[in-house]
Amino acid sequence: MLSGFKMLEIIVTLVLELVKCLAPPTERQLVYLRKRNYNANLENLKAEMEKLKAERTSIQRRVSEAKEKGEEIEEKVEKWLVSANGIIDQAAKFVEDEESTNKRCLKGLCPNLKTRYQLSKKAETEVKALVELGEEVKKFDIVSHRTTPEEIWLKSNKGYEAFESRVSTLKSIQNALTDVNVSIIGVYGMGGIGKTTLVKEFARQAREKKLFDRVVFSEVSQTPDIKKIQGEIAEKLGLELSDEAEYRRASRLYERLKNENKILVILDNIWKYLDLDTIGIPFGNDHEGYNFLIGNLSEEEAWRLFKIMNGDDVENCKFKPTAINVAQACGGLPIALTTVARALRNKSLHEWKNALRELQTPSVVNFEGVPAETYSSIELSFKYLKGEQLKKIFLLCSLIGNSFYLIDLLRYSMGLGLFHGVNKMEDARNKLYALVHELRDCCLLLEGDRNETFYMHDVVCDVAVSIACRDQHVFLVRNDAVWEWPDGDALKKCYAISLLNSSIHEVSLEFECPQLEFLHIDPKITFAELNIPDNFFKGMKKLRVVDLTRVRLFSLPSSIGQLTKLRMLDLTDCLQLKFIVPNILSSFTRLEELYMGSCSIKWEVRKGNSERSNASLDELMHLQRLTTLEIDVEDDSILPDGLFTKKLERFDISIGDGSFDSTKIIGNDWFQ
């Protein structure tokens, strides 16, 4: 005997056959009542839903990777994800509702034909929507695109005060730029007067008022690096420039800038004539230009800025007259006012009077373009820094260039042993972070545009270098200035030698530098060859830090093995370095950090007592204090056993073929 359920299915089948003959259009509607069609639609729905879930997961992963790279997601992809989430949720709810409906009808034994019809038809509709979205995702060759984020200073006017003398200059610049015949505007004045701050504020306001579609900024410096300027401008335009000749880069940049409708290009810190054609910046032949001189702040404006930097309490304190005299002694220079005001926070009357005396009897300074009043004010701020450690960090900043990364400052500080009693790198980093931000709060350092970068104002850096040369017997050459080595007596007192952006090709002297602890050679031309005599390091027994990054060396001078107090050695990107005398590395018994990434050393494997012609990685096992290691090797089989059982806190070992195209990287980082 047939059950009611089977009898119902037979009746539905007979009705469908009858309708097929008498009314074909109606058949297409009644087919939703058939059990096998209903089940097929439901199974198709579940299958397509799972397919779309897989596609969604794939797109979400690509989107996450793109966001990590700082890329912007395509609008169509974001809309697709919203649609996919909606249709998947809708389909899942449908399946859930269908299952509960079946259970309510005598556990599925007595189906409701009306409900079956509705569910079957809806399932078919849902399947079509899922399939369409699945087809659409196949068209997504890319899910994101690179963006050119606005610089931080364009989003905030932090640190800017709208003094009347500056407001009028801002208005004049704006009026000039609205003149169609003007394409170039110059803003000039003495160092520390606030030119950069003013121009950045104008750019921020111009961007806010939509006077320009784009604003790009590049620092030129005393010795312009054309490729660097081109690269900075191109990066902010989203233009990729290959490492080709300057004139080719200039042509590409020129064409790109010509396509911009309204763009403001700011070239800061220009010290001498700069050929815009060489860079690739277009400007009209017949266009006029304007120059604006920025003068000192008025007495009223100077006192207002001084109060802001020192605190409003100075207005009501008993030594206000002295404070006013101190502010006046700063000569209306913003950089002098800010550094002195910060330095004298919470100081006693005696300290205020002493500060006034020092400002009124300025030191002699040998740096062109630094007014004596400014020099004295910055030196005074230096004197009021709390503790010798903070002062040493400040002076060290000036030895590694105007702009630097916190991680580089950390390496030098650790190498020089500036953190007494601090043994862990993470503790040292936290300590340095606090010290650097204290210098920032004293207006002696400024935060860079990139994460964990800082820089010194040119004037502050000049004063810091002057103090370092005078008090620490530092010898520093910047930007390939004309120079000669100091005489023998001066070298014997030298604590640090720093050659920044220098074209030095040869060191022909055997230096006698018994007090030297810091040596940094930064070539102006990347990978420039430098001939160093084999006995160069013979008279430098106290050296703690040696940085020869990017220097073109073919071998290390054997005398470097006498540096038994060396704590940090950086040979990163010494691409031609292939040879190191055996047992040199093992002689660095106090070495804590060794950086040899992208060196081409042909490491030898120790075989018994046989003589070697090159260094072996086994020598690293003798360095009991080594905590940081970066090296390249051709084959991981030459890595000594037990290397990773040492107390390495950070290591980066690239393993690849003879060309050092890395195929595997073993790494560990304290700062992850």
TrEMBL record:
<dbReference type="GO" id="GO:0006952">
    <property type="term" value="P:defense response"/>
</dbReference>
<dbReference type="Pfam" id="PF00931">
    <property type="entry name" value="NB-ARC"/>
</dbReference>
<comment type="similarity">
    <text>Belongs to the disease resistance NB-LRR family.</text>
</comment>
<keyword id="KW-0611">Plant defense</keyword>
<dbReference type="InterPro" id="IPR032675">
    <property type="entry name" value="LRR_dom_sf"/>
</dbReference>
<dbReference type="GO" id="GO:0005524">
    <property type="term" value="F:ATP binding"/>
</dbReference>
<keyword id="KW-0067">ATP-binding</keyword>
<feature type="domain" description="NB-ARC">
    <location>
        <begin position="169"/>
        <end position="292"/>
    </location>
</feature>
<keyword id="KW-0547">Nucleotide-binding</keyword>
<feature type="coiled-coil region">
    <location>
        <begin position="28"/>
        <end position="76"/>
    </location>
</feature>
<keyword id="KW-0175">Coiled coil</keyword>
<dbReference type="InterPro" id="IPR042197">
    <property type="entry name" value="Apaf_helical"/>
</dbReference>
<keyword id="KW-0732">Signal</keyword>
<dbReference type="InterPro" id="IPR027417">
    <property type="entry name" value="P-loop_NTPase"/>
</dbReference>
<dbReference type="InterPro" id="IPR050905">
    <property type="entry name" value="Plant_NBS-LRR"/>
</dbReference>
<dbReference type="InterPro" id="IPR002182">
    <property type="entry name" value="NB-ARC"/>
</dbReference>
<protein>
    <recommendedName>
        <fullName>NB-ARC domain-containing protein</fullName>
    </recommendedName>
</protein>
<feature type="signal peptide">
    <location>
        <begin position="1"/>
        <end position="23"/>
    </location>
</feature>
<dbReference type="GO" id="GO:0043531">
    <property type="term" value="F:ADP binding"/>
</dbReference>
